[in-house]
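Bit of a strange request maybe. I'm writing a small parser for structure token strings and I need a real example to test against, not something I typed by hand. Could someone generate the tokens for this chain?
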Amino acid sequence: MIITVKHPTLQRDIENKTARISVFGLGFIGLPTALSFAYAGYRVNGIDINPIVVTNLNTGIVHIAEKGLEELLQSALTGHYFCATTDFVVSEIYIIAIATPLTKEKSANLVSVEAALTQIANKLRPGNLVIIESTLPPGTTENIISRYLNEISGLSDKGDYFLAYCPERAMPGKLLDEIRCNARIIGGTTPEATDLVLQLYRSFVSGAIFPTSATVAELVKLLENTYRDVNIALANEISVVCDGLGVNASEVISLANHHPRVHIHQPGIGVGGDCIPVSPQFIIQSDPLHTGLIQYARAFNARMPIVTADRIEREFIQKQYLRETATIGVIGMTYRANIPDFRNSPAIEVIKELANRGYTVHAYDPFSAQLREPLPENIRLVTREMAEQCDYVVELVHHDG
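Reply from user aminoacidic:
Good idea to test on real output. This should exercise your parser:
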């Protein structure tokens, strides 16, 4: 169903692909999204605060190791459909895809999102469309962002301009495919806004698109990641129980998963990345009183690097190695296999915990050149061969090849 909007010019410009798009944030989500719109035929300006990223993108160099991304950038640059900049660019459509990390108090840090909103609000015009893709606590779009934009611009999202929340559902390593093929949730603050965003994203999204409210869309995004966090916590807790019973946790879970209504994830050393460890905290932030299960699961998974270090230490002692002279070789440091992404990596937390206990650790990862985090002095980055020659060797993350 196509809804007749109050500003038909934007609807026409979306259909004709003459609407200009500005995407704020050229990271793991913003850049593939911007290039996907460019590939669909829109003129896109990618806005980022990092001048090095901007310069590199304009010369065809991507800063994200993702299959197909560099080729898509080259095509967009050749056709003059994409340009990166550090400056604000007046457009008809503004998309915010800026990361929302956790503060020290475990709440959403919206400082960078607010900075982008301020720029947009000062230039917002009737008929413009503002889309938020950043992960947000439920209620933020309708209760905070709309009020903020309305107060600064003097306009209303209930009739003058359009506002919607449209979260991404994509995983590093498969970003382009999943941004295009996965189902999308679109929550506008008005039915007209929802319909406009649906038409816009249909230009490159082949998956199903489900319209809803902004708050529902925010919570759906958070729930998807929280489900995985809780499921992993169950698997990790069972793995600790299995340690005590002397049985293999992977075998227990594998056999349990033969039940047609059971799907338990595999246990691990913790949960990393920029989604699963963060999204549950946004739900907790919105209702601390009624999120006991989510809080317990998050705390349990956050403690798994310590549990893993305990396991390594027990085996180390059983083999009668001396902490003062023996070395531990660790293979794999990214937060998941086969991608150069170290964000919130539990493997790094395991290594740090071992170092804090006084062990000398020789660590190897094929992507270690992209590691920006400083490590304790008793952690050495070495070749795989050197790591494998240590007295005790453990593989925390298995990379193919």
